[in-house]
Amino acid sequence: MALAELTAETLYRASDLAAFYAFTFGWSFRATGRENLPRTGPVLLVANHQSFADPVLVGAAAPRWLTYLARSSLWNNRLLGRLIDAYRAVPIDRGFGKEGLQTVLDQLAKGRAVLMFPEGERTHTGELQPLKPGVSLLVKRVTCPIVPVGVAGAYRAWPRTRKVPLLDPLPLASCGRGIAVAFGRPIDPARYKTMDREAMLVDLGAAIRTAYEAAERVRRRADNTGPKPSDRE
Predict the structure, then answer these.
(1) What is the CATH topology of the domain spanning 3-218?
(2) In angstroms, rounded to a whole number, what is the distance separating the alpha carbons of residues 135 and 121?
(3) Strand partners, 31
(4) For residue range 116-153, what is the model confidence (pLDDT) as tens digits?
(5) pLDDT by residue (tens digit) across 154-202?
(6) CA 77 to chain centre
(7) Where do the structural domains in the chain lie, given as residue ranges?
């Protein structure tokens, strides 16, 4: 392994561990279904999008290094660009056109686990949003497992209307802003080969909703204040 790659992996692992404990003590972070994410080989993870923290949340819950998609403009800030590089993020233009599609396929061809948010933007209401039609072009072309991911509680902790998040510290009685991530069962992409676009989007959206509901069931709430550790290994 090249020194640069070793340094990047060390930084990723260190920041990932720091994020896990920060989320655990700051928002009673929990994770479930980690056994559903293959530990090796290409995987496409599709998650609902509740807050700015979602990529780091899913990464902290995942048992393997993830590859993220990020707006190319973020690299204009050198410090932020270096951090994004450490997380092995890849740039895409705003929107998800042909170049973005090819970028994801290229990363999957390298055997990586790529995380994307097919709703296209953070939720305005906390509710799950319809998937963007463009994701169907990607799903039709992938040959690897597709893992639905549910993020719950992040909207209450950090809605898009706030510049900074609201805490729900583990040692204190819950304010109902506990956060959880759930990984659903992998989907064989062959399932979607003969589906039309609308049926595919509905089916994939339902899988994400199932994962979201699993995350909702395990996250710490105001009426569920007892500590319950994540199943992170």
Answers:
(1) Glycerol-3-phosphate (1)-acyltransferase (3.40.1130)
(2) 13
(3) 181
(4) 999 989 999 999 999 999 899 999 999 999 999 999 99
(5) 999 999 999 999 999 998 999 999 999 999 999 999 999 999 999 999 9
(6) 23
(7) 3-218
